[in-house]
Amino acid sequence: MKLAFKEMWRQKRKFSLIFVITLLIVLLSTLITGLADGLAYDNGASLRELDVETFQLAEDADGQLPRSFIELPTPETLTPLGVKPLTLVQGTVKQDATLFTLPADSDVGPELDLAVGDVLVDPSFLGDFALGDTIQDFTTGYQFTIAGTTDGRYSHAPVIWASMETWEAFQSHGGQPEYVSAWLGEAPTSLTALSKQEVVEAVPGYTAEQGTFTMMRGFLLFIGAFILTAFFYMLTLQKLPELGILKAIGIRPRVIGTALVTQVMTTVLVASLSAAVLTALVASFVPSDIPFRFEAGHVLFYSVIMFVLSLIGTLLPLWKLRHLDAADALGGTLQ
Length: 335
Prior knowledge:
- The chain crosses the membrane at residues 215-235, 255-287, 299-319.
- Keywords: Cell membrane, Membrane, Transmembrane, Transmembrane helix, Transport.
- The chain is of the alpha+beta class and 335 residues long.
- The protein has 10 helices and 10 strands.
- The protein has helices at 2-10, 12-48, 164-174, 196-201, 206-238, 240-248, 253-285, 296-313, 315-322, 326-331; strands at residues 54-57, 79-90, 93-102, 118-121, 134-137, 143-149, 153-154, 157-163, 182-184, 192-195.
- It has a 6-stranded mixed beta barrel with strand order 2-3-8-4-6-5.
- α2 packs across α7 and α5 runs parallel beside α9.
- It is elongated.
- The mean pLDDT is 85.
């Protein structure tokens, strides 16, 4: 290790350039991770915040709450949940939102001690509306009154929360059959039981969106490890005469190889820690309308992948070191 750090100190410019490039690659990866986590949360925040792990939906709903129609009476041991996408209007202003409803006395979600017709809205819904405003469902004409705010997002749209009494009044006003979208809780029923994560992943667009980000991060980390490997391989080629001298005076190849691995580990480790700190700072300054979240576990996960890929990349310069002949290196016949 002493040999590794001594060389890094004496060739500060070269290793600083390698560090900066590694940092930028890892930072881009962690920033993309922050955007992916932000979009993932924005897609199903209302579901993630519910204090329940099991959702029971209709068998033909494919895990999607708006497609699930359960007309059976809800068992006493379970909690009914109503979900319906709406287009709400006030004059010429239109805005999409998703209506979520729970019993007023339920402790699964937000407190919904509201009058019939009153709703709590996500703060992002208040761009064109204000507390106390009356908004109308475009399809049925049912009117809601904005009584307060509570955080909630579903499928990248704001959520409006209401009590189950409002849900029943809404269905009656529109002439719809009475149903709920899911039963929450664990109990044997004829419905399809899904975990919270499975319901979140069934939100339209969630899987394609996250799959795209995962592919971007994978390619980025692979390219970053490849670039880092190329840098250290070129450095190894440049210093073959010096390495030949070291082997000629009796320095074992294992010592030289350990120095190389130490340099790669140090570069990636410092770059990953710096990228994590910078990503946390970015998360604190990003405007609230941009879905960006700093999840330390996810940043650590992709940093570890970069670390492992970089270590695998050291096999190429290590192979070159293993086959280095001191006499040829000193004679300058190797390229």
